[in-house]
Structures are given as C-alpha cells and as structure tokens.
Specification:
This protein is α+β, with helices and mostly antiparallel strands and about 375 residues long. It is built from ten helices and ten strands. It has three domains: about 110 residues, Orthogonal Bundle (Butyryl-Coa Dehydrogenase, subunit A, domain 1), CATH 1.10.540; about 110 residues, Butyryl-CoA Dehydrogenase, subunit A, domain 2, CATH 2.40.110.10; about 140 residues, Butyryl-CoA Dehydrogenase, subunit A, domain 3, CATH 1.20.140. Bound molecules: acetoacetyl-coenzyme A (CAA). One of its GO terms (molecular function) is acyl-CoA dehydrogenase activity.
Length: about 375
C-alpha cells in the first residue's frame, strides 16, 4: 500500500502485527465463545497499547491519529473484538484529552494509558441514531449534579472503570442542552444491567446501565455546560476512523483465510484459486480493502494535521463497513460448506463485521450526513 509512515509508525506497526499474531488472533475464537478476555486486556496494557496516542506527560507514547489507526488496523487483522474494545476505550478517553480541564487530564489520562478501561455512554434504549433524543438527565442541586436515566449498547460497559456519560442538562434546548460527565465505576447509584447476548463482537462486553440519583461534583463535567452534543459528535468523527481501520483489518483477516483455502482446495483438477470465478472475487475484495485502507489513513492524516474530518471519516466508515460485510460473505462463498462451519472462522468474522454497519453511526445516518454535506457545498 502506498502510504508514507514514519520510521516510528513502522516500528509500532511491526510490533502490533507481531503481538496480534502471537497474542490476539489465537484468543479470538475463545472470546467469541466466552466473552471479554481479562488476560488479553493485561497483555494489551503491558504492551503499552491502551494509551499509545496519549501525550507522554500523561503516560502515553505520544502517537498521532495515524499511529492510532495503525494500532486498530493491525489488531483487527487478528480480532475485531479486540480492536473495537480499544476503539471504544479511546473514544471515551479522548473526550477528556480534547475537552478536559488540566485537573481532569492529570487524573484520568494516566489511568487510561495504564489500562483502566473507559466507555462512552451516549446511546439509550430509545435514542440511538437520534442522539439528541436522549432522556438521561442531570439536574443541578447546589454544587452537585444529580444524574438519572440509563444507557444501552455501550461498548465496554460492565468492564469499564470510567464512563463518559452524555445527559440532558437543559432538555428544552434539544441538542444544545446536553453535557458530558465523568462517572466512575463504583459510584453510588450506577448499576450495571443486563449483558447483551450479541451476534458478533462477542469479545467486547455490552450491558445496560442505569443511573439512580447519582450525585456528581461540578468537577465531573467535561467541557462547557450544554456543549456535550458537539463534544460527542467530534469524538465520533475520530472513532469512525477507527471503524474504517477495523473494517480494513477484519476484511483482510477473512481474505487471508479464504486465500489459503483457495490455494489448497482443488476442483476439476486444479486449485479453485485458478478458476476465474474465484480469482475475480479476490480481485474485487483486494481492491476494496485497499480503497478502505487508503481512505482510513487519509482521514487519519487529516485528523493528525488538525483538519475537520467529519465528512471523510463518515465516508471511510460507510464504505469500509459495507465492504467488510460483503467481503466476509464472499469469503464464506469461497469456502463453500466449510465457510458456513465454525471450524473455519470466517463465519465468526462475518458476524463481527455486521456490527460495523450499525455502531458509531449506522450506514443510514452516515448517508444522511454525507449526502447533506455534499449537496450543501
Ligand atoms: N463536529 C462538530 N460539530 C458538529 C458535528 C461534528 N462532527 N456534528 C454536528 N455538529 C454540530 C452542528 O454543526 C450543529 O451546530 P450548530 O447548531 O451550532 O450549527 C450541532 O452540532 C447540531 O448538529 P445537527 O443539527 O446535525 O444535529 P442533529 O440533532 O440533527 O443530529 C445526526 C444529527 C448527525 C443524525 C446525529 O444525531 C448523529 O450523528 N447520530 C448518530 C449518533 C451515533 O453515531 N451514535 C452511535 C454512538 S456509539 C455508541 O454509543 C456505542 C459505543 O459504545 C461506542
């Protein structure tokens, strides 16, 4: 792939590639069957991957948005769940990085870099795509905020140490009346609810959350009062780059399995890889993976250069996620009956892929965003 990584980025890429092959990929099937892998989490911490892009002063490795995309991309080549876990952790921690006070950064970013798990709580059972429709509410009571409500579909909930929770602070103002709060695990009134029994990405933990009169100090608010909606949207711009990276890595994982199979399996006296019908599938898959990879690193570079990247991140996520599902289904087709069996892993990757078209902005919402932006130009 044509992309100019720095020497340092190449070193990180090679390190994560090696780590993924040795530690991540071999555990992916176990996670699909058993759920979140605490041992792997410890290994990610020891490898310094939980805060690779955070500033050195807060315990990170000072990587930029391209480095973040490299880490997610390489992890996804072995386990989409693991890549999604790290993506969701960064989605929440980055809100403190970009909008927190110095006091909040000094307290929470070293925790994030050391491996305490963060989660981003925007979605509710009755408000997903319509993010401004959330009902959780924080009401001022003297010097504190009293938070009530709940969240649903929050990646890392149930295993997280720190939650960034979006709640209405002035409901009559719609999206202009939402604020972001830091809620630590163990806070009185925070209840972890039902764990979702998901189709894929089963190595990540997803639960319901409920808030019963949680008392939060004024210092728990991140960013200005009522600025939470824009903060969340900006954070999602970054996370959508990660989804592009997961899509590229996951699709490559599936194609690698299919490639080995196609070179081994023979029909009509030759490997199926030599049949044009199969060859064409690989040509299309490879071209689409390359396109997703380039779109992803291009938008990561825009982010690293401090440019607004809402449109390009939405495009990378939309194109990448749909490409990824399609690629996994094509790989199942290449493997035929074996592709439909759990033994050959591709069916698991296809189940993981589907989430990418739903989480962090559905394809429909992204088409609305992209269409409206292009037509307004
Ligand atoms: N960056 C900066 N500002 C932004 C922005 C961005 N990316 N997106 C919107 N804004 C600003 C707008 O400019 C506007 O500001 P002004 O009023 O000052 O002009 C304001 O925010 C409101 O924007 P919209 O009018 O576009 O707001 P809307 O209510 O119409 O919502 C939407 C639009 C795009 C559909 C939005 O609701 C949305 O993105 N929905 C999808 C939410 C989503 O992706 N959810 C997944 C969460 S992931 C999760 O929860 C799971 C997990 O664990 C990770």
């Amino acid at each position: 792939m044509l992309f100019d990584f720095t020497q340092e980025q190449l070193m990180i890429r090679d390190m994560v590639r090696d780590f993924t092959a040795k530690e991540v990929e071999p555990r992916d099937k176990w996670m699909d069957e058993n759920g979140f892998d605490h041992e792997l989490h410890k290994k990610l911490c020891n490898a310094g991957l939980m805060g690779v892009h955070l500033p050195e002063q807060y315990g990170g490795a000072d990587g930029d948005a391209i480095t973040s995309a490299i880490v997610i991309h390489e992890l996804a080549k072995g386990s989409a769940s693991t890549a999604l876990f790290v993506d969701a952790h960064w989605l929440a921690a980055d809100i403190i990085l970009y909008h927190g006070t110095e006091e909040q950064k000094s307290k929470y970013l070293p925790m994030a870099a050391a491996g305490k798990i963060f989660a981003f709580g925007l979605t509710e059972s009755s408000a997903g795509s319509d993010a401004a429709g959330i009902k959780s509410q924080a009401v001022k009571d003297g010097d504190t905020w009293v938070l009530n409500g709940g969240k649903a579909w929050i990646t890392n909930s149930g295993v997280a140490d720190v939650y960034i929770i979006l709640a209405k602070t002035q409901p009559e103002l719609g999206n202009k009346g939402i604020s972001a709060f830091i809620v630590e695990e163990g806070t009185e009134g925070l209840k972890i609810g039902k764990k979702e029994d998901k189709m894929g990405m089963r190595g990540t933990c997803t639960t319901e959350l409920s808030f019963d009169n949680i008392r939060l100090p004024a210092s728990a608010m991140v960013g200005a009062e009522n600025s939470g909606f824009k903060i969340a949207m900006m954070a999602l711009d970054g996370a959508r780059i990660s989804v592009g990276a997961i899509a590229a890595g996951l699709a490559e994982h599936a194609m690698t399995i299919a490639k080995h199979y196609a070179n081994e399996r023979t029909t009509f006296g030759k490997p199926i890889a030599k049949h044009q019908g199969i060859m064409f599938k690989f040509a299309d898959m490879a071209a689409h993976i390359e396109a997703t990879t380039l779109m992803t690193y291009n938008v990561a570079r825009m982010k690293a250069e401090g440019k607004r990247h809402t449109l390009e991140a939405a495009m990378a996520k939309l194109f990448g996620s749909e490409m990824c599902t399609k690629t996994c289904m094509e790989c199942i087709q290449v493997l035929g009956g074996y592709g439909y069996s759990k033994e050959y892993h591709v069916e698991r990757l296809a189940r993981d892929a589907k989430l990418l078209e739903i989480g962090e902005g559905t394809s429909e919402i992204l088409r609305m965003l992209i269409g409206a932006t292009i037509l307004a130009k």
